[in-house]
Amino acid sequence: MPRVDGFRKAAGETIPPREPQPPVPPSPAGDNPEQDSKSKLDFSLYLREAKYTLNDVILPDTTKRQVDLVLAEIKYQDLIYQEWGMGEKHKLDKALSINFSGPPGTGKTLTAEAIAHALNVKILDVPYEQIESKYVGETPKNIKGAFDFATENNALLFFDEADSFLGKRLENVTQATDTAVNLTRSVMIKQLSAYEGIIIFATNLIRNYDSAFLSRIRWKVLFDLPTEEARAKIWKAQIPTQLPLHESVNFAELAKEFGDISGRDIKNAVLQSVVAAAREDKPKEAKRVKQTHFQEAIREIIEANKTSSQQQVTLTAVEGDVPLPNLPSNDAASDS
Q: In whole angstroms, what is the distance from residue 95 CA to residue 216 CA?
């Protein structure tokens, strides 16, 4: 993994050459405690080549600057950690750890993949629902397995929805599941402290993070909804060169008219607009994607977002007796 050996050398360590290890013959089932302690997940299913590049990512200036600084640490690692001596001050910070936080659809996953592409490494993206197991003790094994697999394959390790397993630890432990939750948090922190690669966490709910974990993250990158200028660029970036556009299309006007939307909203709106234009009852040669197609699609998406984000009814615990409303009499009920 980039920067690790140079970082350890800067800390005064001697890095011996790694000799290949002879293969270990398999043991009968149940006779190998080390094997039993390993994750049963097939992590190769979640290892992929990075397809997106930094040119594919359109970010607000502040976010882009932070991403550039992350890449600069890798590019100038020898200068920073050896020649300038920063390795002496960060002897225990072995991992290049990054956290992406912000609203859904703002480019966190896309940027993680673009960073992997810039580093010419694969990305290991294991969904949380695969990491978490209903069996007690399996989730910590899966977490460790992900770190080990990323190291063995020189891959960038990416955890999306990281708040799901990095939330605040429970203080009042009353049952086995509470103990398992706290164990998961502790294992993640321990693995992060020992990891020597590049790891990116992403979350929409950074406020739910355990502070002990958050303090160990090197770079904290905030992703926000795109500005008007960025929205215009995203609209334009989503249009294939062969897509027939009507002369009425104006991306600057779309960006100005529709704010508080994410890049994913725009991407979905473009696809919906193209589908609407394709299904129109006219010859193929006459079909065009119009400004009205884009406007109608993004309006529908905005309305759908409003509906899904409406505040849900919550139940609040109270102390003491709570008076209940009078129930209707049987006579009143029969009259209705």
A: 10
Rounded Cα–Cα distance for residues 87 and 282 (Å): 67
| Strand pairing category for 219-222 and 96-101 | parallel
Q: Which domain holds residue 235?
A: 228-306
Q: For residues 147 and 150, give the distance between their C-alpha atoms in angstroms, rounded to a whole number.
A: 5
Q: Any bridge partners for residue 123, and if so which?
A: 48, 156
10 pLDDT higher than 50 = no
* Average pLDDT score over the chain: 83
At position 87, the amino acid (one-letter code) is G
The predicted pLDDT at position 248 comes to 97
Distance CA 180, CA 178 (A): 5
Q: Is the pLDDT of residue 149 over 90?
A: yes
Q: Is the pLDDT of residue 232 over 90?
A: yes
Based on its alpha-carbon atoms, the radius of gyration of the chain, rounded to whole angstroms, reads 26
Question: Sign of the C-alpha dihedral, residues 271, 276, 277, 278?
Answer: positive
Can you tell me whether residue 222 is helix, strand or coil? strand
Confidence of residue 163 (pLDDT cuts 50, 70, 90): confident
**Considering only CA atoms, which of 271, 335, 261 is closest in space to residue 304?**
261
Which one-letter DSSP state was computed for residue 321? -
End-to-end CA distance of the chain: 74
What single-letter amino acid sits at 5?
Answer: D
Cβ 54 vs Cβ 117: under 8 Å: yes
What DSSP state is assigned to residue 203? E
Residue 70 forms part of a structural domain: yes
Inter-residue contact 129 to 251 (CB < 8 Å): no
- Whole-model pTM over 0.70: yes
- Number of compact structural domains in the chain: 2
Mean pLDDT of 158-184: 70
- For residue 120, the domain's CATH number is 3.40.50.300
Residues 94 and 189 in one domain: yes
> Which of 202-216, 252-266, 315-329 is least confident?
315-329
